TrEMBL record:
Coiled coil: none
Name of the protein this chain belongs to: YceI-like domain-containing protein
Family annotation (InterPro entries): Lipid/polyisoprenoid-bd_YceI (IPR007372), TTHA0802/YceI-like_sf (IPR036761)
Residue intervals passing through the bilayer: none
Pfam families membership: YceI (PF04264)
Lipid/polyisoprenoid-binding YceI-like domain location: 24-186
Amino acid sequence: MKKLSLLLVLLFVTGIYVFAQKNQVKINESQVKWTGTKIGGSHKGEIKIEHGFLSLKSDQIIGGEIVMDMNSITVTDIEDQGYNQKLVGHLKSDDFFGVEKFSNSKFVISKATEFADGKAKVTGQLTIKGKTESLSFDVFKDGNSYTAQIKVDRSKFDVRYGSNSFFDNLGDKVIGDIFTLDISLII
């Protein structure tokens, strides 16, 4: 009886391995672009993906993890180098992402629907500054390319600078709590 039970367990584990495929993200071809808003404007930039993978089974995402290198954050909409580096430094500071202590942010996929007309709903856990929140969003598939736009409420991750969720009387110095991540993953 023990041999039969062991055989069934081995067949089950082997079946999962055979049918689920772990695909590494091509980090040099993939990208994460961010957009943050403030009264009277916005800023944009990029964050490099350190590593990641998507697990697929029968063309459905069944898991995955994307790790972003917060030290790589850039600003792409400010041409003046001095002002650009000032903003990059501020974004890396404890006022925003505290990259000295929290050098990575990550998203771990917990579930997804099947793709229908190239679109699926993905749910997972986003961790920024050591805080984790559940998020759901649509992912679009075209060949080996997976794209998504994620709206992130920074106040849930203790990113407080200029947020009227935490401070009163900011006037025209308010920075929007919601920032956008436009993600393109190539596997």
